[in-house]
Amino acid sequence: MFNYYSGMARIKILLYKSNQAKNGTFPVMLRVTKQSKLKYITIGNLRATEKQWNEEIGRYKKDKRLCPDNEKYNILLNEIENRANDIILSFERIGKNWTLSQFDELFSNKGAQGNVLKYIDKLVCDFRDTEHYGNANCYENTRKILEIFDSRVEKRLFGEIDVRYLKDFDLFLEKRGCAGNTRRYYIKTLRAIWNRAIKDGIATTNDYPFGANKFEVSKLGEETKKRYLTIDRLEQIKQTSFDDPSLEEARKLFLFLYYCYGISWVDAARLNTTNIVQLNGGRYLVYKREKIKNQKAVREIKIKITSEIDALMEWFRINTKLIDNYLLPIVNQQKLSGESLYKHIRHRFTVNKNKLRTIANDLNINDMRLTSYVARHSMAMVLQANNVPREVISQTLGHNDMETTNIYLDSFTTDVIDEAGKLL
User: Fold this and answer.
1) N or C of the chain: less Cβ packing under 10 Å?
2) pLDDT tens-place string over residues 260-275
3) Contacts of 213 (CB under 8 A, 6+ apart)
4) Helix%, strand%, coil% for the chain, nearest 5
5) Helices within 112-179 (DSSP H only)
């Protein structure tokens, strides 16, 4: 089989007839096609003439008079084709939105070859190519702290990152004043890098240093401080308006996040008119979480537009300047995309956080920092206080384990979630 097709990807072994040598031979190449883009990859030093080549099956003709080594070459081509198929299938299994350059890098063994920092750099490039800028920053931060911790990290291979290494790294972070959750952030990222390296064939499971009887990342977490508002405090925010337009905008954005089941700032910022959909006889906000939208089999989140949500959207439409069909005034510059949009949304998050701090001071909320995450946590606590099953709350919030979250999203009808929303 010379022509393997998977989804939007296609591979074929052929003669590259744009490069004929003086002896009349052409290089044998692997052509990879994805979304109408092509990449040709040289297969060693294999060459053939048109008479030696069977174009239909993409192999040397079975004629020893034309090519005495045709059997040996065809066995090699079979192995190469299988390797290309395996790489594409491995990308599909993990839901990776891969590029032709990434395929070439893995197929041609141009990868990190076990070197930790080089592999992290490759992942950072991959994340930026696929617009996962948050993950790119997370991995870059971990890389930087590893450079401070380990003077030999540039030469480290994955096999050297053992349990002893992780314990020393954890102690180093603790001495720098990092709390348990911060230490967990760095080492959990390192574990994610390890897991990806195993899938890409850069590291082996035999050297894997995490898990039971090894280094357990879960033991690094610490109890999170209270991040939810009491019912009285929530009512205070709902009922207190501000003369300052910027503070009033921040208050209403906080309430919008709350009523929308604690939607994240990043996801809320990207909502536009195309996210409003008619379902079950009502209007819904339908979207996929930005951080996982490109993963395989990710389900849409559906939020019924209640009277509270509708009133807030109408207020934003009348009292703020909305651009590019956005529903909220978070993005306030036109035609941003890619990393520029990501950085803009992060900057607006900081601006809004400072406004929420002012609101908290004015309302004498001094037992916590008022942030967009507090809206999310408060929503969950209100539902729990009203005896909403935790499975339903899990669906509205999402999980760190996204596979579990998607299972929950399939488990309940929108009617159940709609009823829960009435309690907010």
Assistant:
1) N
2) 988 999 999 999 999 9
3) none
4) 50, 15, 35
5) 116-129, 133-149, 163-175
Distance CA 31, CA 15 (A): 10
| pLDDT range class, residue 2, cuts 50, 70, 90 | very low
Give the span between the Cα atoms of 244 and 120, in whole angstroms.
Answer: 46
C-alpha 40/C-alpha 61 separation (Å) is 22
Read off the pLDDT of residues 277-301 as tens digits, 9 standing for 90 and up. 999 889 999 998 887 776 777 778 8
Contact 285, 303 (CB under 8 A): yes
For residue 190, which of 203, 179, 201, 178 has the smallest C-alpha distance?
A: 203
Classified as helix, coil or strand, 272 is strand
Distance CA(335)–CA(395), nearest Å, equals: 33
Yes or no: say if 26 and 50 are a contact pair by the CB < 8 Å rule: yes
The amino acid at residue 171 is L
pTM of the model: 0.62
